[in-house]
Amino acid sequence: MNNRVANVASASKVLNFKWAIAAFFVVACSLLVAMPHAGAKELPDFTELVDKFGPSVVNVSTKARPRQAQAQLDENDPMYEFFRRFMPPGAVPNPSNPNTPGNPNAPRRKSPRTVPPGTAEEAPLRNLGVGSGFIFSSDGYVLTNAHVVADADEVTVTLTDKREFKAKVIGADQRTDIAVLKLAATDLPKVNIGDSDKVRVGEWVMAIGSPFGFENTVTAGIISAKTRDTGDFVPFIQTDAAVNPGNSGGPLFNIKGEVVGINSQIFSGGGGYIGISFAIPINTAVDTANQIIKSGKVTRGRIAIEMMPTPITDDLASALGLPASPGVMIKTVEEGGPADKVGVKARDIIRKVDGSAVKNNIDVIRNISSKAPGSQVTLTIWRKGVEKDYVVTIAEAPADAAPVASKKDDGTPFQEADRLGLVVRDLIAKDKIEQKLTLGVIIEDVDGPAERAGLQAGDAILALNNTEIKNAAQFNQLVAKIDSKKAIALLVQRGKETRYITLKPDSK
User: Is 37 a catalytic residue?
Assistant: First the structure.
């Protein structure tokens, strides 16, 4: 009996102990749920940022006049031979040739516009593409990618409140892929500019843009890497925020609502987002934009050297007795240039620029190009086992956008294109003999209205309206005075063909 009582008492104690343990776990779990985890953070809420800065992000749509001829001319047509001779090569589609413009399977290439030579009416504008941008200043300056507005004849910027503006392209820089647009408006909502040098890998970022034309689309992710070298001039910010075609030119915001980058590229095998995208650091973009706004161009530095195209291999470094992380080798030094003046020589090894080690050519180019002409840079040079610092004064680099050299062979500068899009020169003896010319000018370069009308470099202009052309100075004076509202006629000779071509100049 006593044993039974003892067993009951023992069982009761065990039961009470189990209930106590269960109660302890219930209370503990409740406390764990109620208490925040040490070091844990809530996921970011981007709603306030979108409400505040979304209106400063814009849609950028572009249009251009088609460059491919549309009409098919039969080879038996009486005008076929004329157009074949007079228009640029490939401008007249031939149904039997799969590579001619007009064939949907033809490879894309720049070719003459749809308007045949001599017609005053221009071809209608057609949609070229869609991108993104953001308002840089409240007085109407907008930043986007240069590739978004490339080849555009008309750029339209649409705000979130559906207001549309015809934007003027102030300038574009191909190296950094930055373009500046200007809207005729004031008191616009602008973004806050951050410091891209302070971004940290792993921090949250938000992208707003128009992927595939879907305006004001918001995506988020983190900074995946900094100063990502893709071989371009710009050391990109890498992010996993979803970016697709149409996001180009849009801002990349940090969690503070500051723009730290401009979405520019994606890494993709099929054209869509697969988890890796690249943004131009905003510090680089702002420096470029400020130069474009101030002077319409970007000024870069140079020291007049050419580097070896291939990196220094381990075997070469060992053979030359170079230490680890050897640097880059100079191929040639321009005589009389900044580097030559201080004693830098071909086959020297650049180890550092202003104390920073260089791994490849692009490191040197970025460091030197970013400096203002007249400033100085210190090159740490290795030569035959001896390392020495050379202080070089930076010179101004030629503009990247120039389609031709800054000077002719005789040292005189090239002309700016006139209101017709033409650059012309006086006749030389060769022109007079080969083309049997006694008066007129020769077209050196062509763009704008003249290009759309079918004119080409090498054509001779004999008259403007009823005035015979004697030299380039006279022609430029006549073009400067013509009425932009009226079409003018140019008497043009190409080979043995002579014909009047009518076109309208660009406005003053």
Answer: no
Alpha-carbon distance 232 to 385, whole Å? Answer: 32
User: DSSP assignment, residue 292?
Assistant: H
Is pTM beyond 0.90 here?
no
Phi/psi of residue 48, nearest 5 degrees: -65, -40
Position 43: which residue type? L
CATH number of 301-396: 2.30.42.10
Contact 221, 241 (CB under 8 A): yes
CATH number of 55-62+126-182: 2.40.10.10
Active site residue 10: no
Choose the catalytic residue: 137, 147, 153, 400. Answer: 147
E-assigned strand segments in 272-417? 277-281, 301-302, 305-307, 328-333, 349-353, 356-357, 376-383, 386-393, 395-396
CATH of 422-503, one of 3.20.20.70, 3.40.50.2300, 3.40.50.970, 2.30.42.10: 2.30.42.10
- Choose the catalytic residue: 56, 196, 248, 277: 248
Furthest-apart CA pair in the chain: how many Å? 141
* pLDDT recorded at residue 35: 52
The question of whether 224 is a catalytic residue gets the answer no
Q: How many CB atoms lie within 10 A of CB 159?
A: 19
Rama region for 473: left / alpha / beta (φ>0; ψ in -120 to 50; rest): alpha
Mean pLDDT value of segment 451-469: 89
Ranges of beta strands (E only) in 234-327 are 236-239, 251-254, 258-266, 277-281, 301-302, 305-307
Let me know: does 184 contact 85? Beta carbons within 8 Å. Answer: no
pLDDT above 70 covers a percentage of the chain that reads 74
Q: How confident is the model at residue 318 (pLDDT cuts 50, 70, 90)?
A: confident
- What confidence tier does 227 reach under pLDDT thresholds 50, 70, 90? confident
Cβ-based neighbour number of residue 503 at 10 Å: 25
pLDDT, tens digit (0-9, with 9 covering 90-100), for 68-88: 444 444 555 544 444 444 444
Q: Which of 177, 240, 348, 445 is catalytic?
A: 177
Distance between CA atoms of residues 432 and 58, nearest Å: 54
Place of tokens 């006086």: 426
Distance separating alpha carbons of residues 87 and 158, to the nearest angstrom: 38
SS (H, E, C) 17-58: HHHHHHHHHHHHHHHHHHCCCCCCCCCCCCHHHHHHHHHHEE
Task: Report how far residue 496's alpha carbon sits from residue 508's, in angstroms, rounded to the nearest whole number.
Answer: 34
Q: 192-295, what's its fold?
A: Thrombin, subunit H (2.40.10)
Q: How confident is the model at residue 20 (pLDDT cuts 50, 70, 90)?
A: low
H-helix segments, 62-169: 80-86, 146-149
